[in-house]
From TrEMBL:
Domain of life: Bacteria
Species of the source: Ruminococcus albus (strain ATCC 27210 / DSM 20455 / JCM 14654 / NCDO 2250 / 7)
Stored SUPFAM superfamilies: lambda repressor-like DNA-binding domains
Family matches, as Pfam families: HTH_26
Domain HTH cro/C1-type: start-end pairs: 7-66
Name of the protein: HTH cro/C1-type domain-containing protein
Taxonomy of the source species: Bacteria, Bacillati, Bacillota, Clostridia, Eubacteriales
Signal peptide coordinates: none
One GO molecular-function entry: DNA binding
């Protein structure tokens, strides 16, 4: 399962919030911001902090993308 934070970047553009501002508002580090830039996994604590800062829900900032290598099985695939 891969993640994409494309929705986060679009939401930040809509709200005219820079990455530096988001770091301060959400209380996240520069290292965490770099992980988000690379679409790396971050903790749910980070996601909830970002959502609180932007007044949104997790589904507004992240997409979970199934990959061919993932062990995730959809009900329809059984």
């Amino acid at each position: 399962m891969a993640v994409s934070y494309r929705k986060l970047w679009h939401l930040m553009l809509d709200k005219r919030i820079s990455k530096t501002e988001l770091e301060k508002l959400a209380g996240i580090s520069d290292y965490t911001m770099r992980k988000l830039n690379r679409d790396d996994d971050v903790s749910t604590e980070v996601l909830t902090s970002i959502c609180a800062a932007l007044n949104c829900e997790v589904q507004d900032i992240v997409d979970f993308i199934p990959t061919k290598n993932s062990n995730f099985v959809f009900e329809d695939d059984k």
